[in-house]
Amino acid sequence: MAGIADRHGIPLVFKASFDKANRTRHDSFRGPGLEQGLQILDEVRRQTGLSLLTDVHEAGQAATIAEVVDVLQVPAFLCRQTDLVAACAATGKPVNLKKGQFIAPADARHLVDKAHALGATAVSLTERGFCFGYNNLVVDMRGLALMRDFAVPVIFDATHSVQLPGAAGGSSGGERQHVATLARAAVAVGVDGLYVEVHDDPDRARSDGPNALTPALLDAMLPELLAIDRVVRSAVAQA
After folding, report:
1. Strands 130-131 and 123-127
2. Which of 23, 42, 88, 157 could form a disulfide with 195 if both were Cys (CB 3.0 to 4.6 A apart)?
3. For the whole model, what pTM was predicted?
4. CA 46, CA 176: separation in Å to the nearest integer?
């Protein structure tokens, strides 16, 4: 991944979860847990030099996680949990808020305001799709433009936005064929970054496989996205 990012001249933050705490089924794979997960993340940093991001699921985890990673993420299902946001803010590390699948874009302003009020100084907001009927998500591109008015970086989660929640018999399905389409649209709106799940063999991944890209697919998608980004930023500069 670092090689792909370097080749295209873009910054990269490595994200991995030590615990997938919101699995649909009780017997689904959750991950290595806090202690081993942080050891693995620390090893990733030593080997790659990349900045790290991971989820915080409980307020009591925040301080320990902040000793290892650069950005603390409040998961989508927990984005309104005040004590969790407060604990993440108290670490002094940047906080990425994943907008819940149940939060309207305009209402995401309150997530940002809450984080700032609780002491977070570097806040970003990530769109990951909105619940649309059963087992489906939809992305309102108008919402991305609206959220950019909140004066924080807006990130588009291109792979979680094509999830089909609970549609794979007790786990989430996905439609990776639509990742590039949504990513192009989001970059055209003017988002500040993209969030992309990547796996060498997505069909065998233990989490998020149906919506994940291979490194080759990501590599092929990036030139288009960068070209769109250059056009958008040039137009904004000239406006």
Report:
1. unpaired
2. 157
3. 0.94
4. 31
